[in-house]
Amino acid sequence: MRRRKEVTSIVRIPMPLLNGTDYFQVAAAMQALRLSSCMHKSSLLAIETLIMIGPFLSNSGRFLDAWTLFGTTIRLAQAIGLHRHPKYLDPAPPTQSECAIRQTLWWWMLHMDEQYSMTLGRPLGISGIGDCPPPHELTTDPRMLRFGEFINHFTILARQILSSDQLSNAKIDGFTDQLSALLDTMPEMLQFDETWLDKEKDLPEWPLSIMAAGT
């Protein structure tokens, strides 16, 4: 009896513009995904891998390839219920750590979906946020907690703007007011300072890098 050949193919990405090392890294990652049959049965590890390949392609000048690959990532993430609240899944994730990973991945995808849409002028790939709550920040620093809340609220508001088919003057004014109010909630250390436009003045170090190094 002939055995049915398992389909292990995945999106092929042409990468002629990448140098040898970059090409090898992406090709190795894609080959590992193919061998794991991630298109047949997705996993958190496969989603994490695809999410990391996306920015790598974008930063290598392959933005359209990253956008195409992200569409596949969305479907695989939805296939394992990444858009759902972990407590509603059956079976539920076995550990709190896995719940946190699922939430972090999904909200990162919501943010990236918004970035692709704004950059390319194309519709959002994710039609609905789902009921997966934002991840809990793994810090007690009030500035980082405030920044995390800002990012989550901005992601939701940006998606509302991008999904609006007809933007009337009234809607534009309303969204502008909401964005201005949201900007005021950003930590002061990250808000734009007009003195940064002075070419003779040295720009300050990125504060989040310092905070990350000290953790």
Automatic annotation (TrEMBL):
| CDD domains (UniProt xref) | fungal_TF_MHR
**Which InterPro entries does the record associate with it?**
Sec_Metabolite_Reg, XnlR_reg_dom
GO annotation, cellular component aspect: nucleus
Q: Which residues form a coiled coil?
A: none
GO biological process, any: DNA-templated transcription
Compartments in which it is found: Nucleus
Family matches, as Pfam families: Fungal_trans (PF04082)
Instruction: Provide a Gene Ontology MF annotation, just one.
Output: DNA binding
According to the lineage, what is the superkingdom?
Eukaryota
Q: Span of the secretion signal?
A: none
Keywords in alphabetical order: Nucleus
Q: Where is the Xylanolytic transcriptional activator regulatory domain?
A: 66-141
Name of the protein described by the UniProt record: Xylanolytic transcriptional activator regulatory domain-containing protein
Originating organism = Didymella exigua CBS 183.55
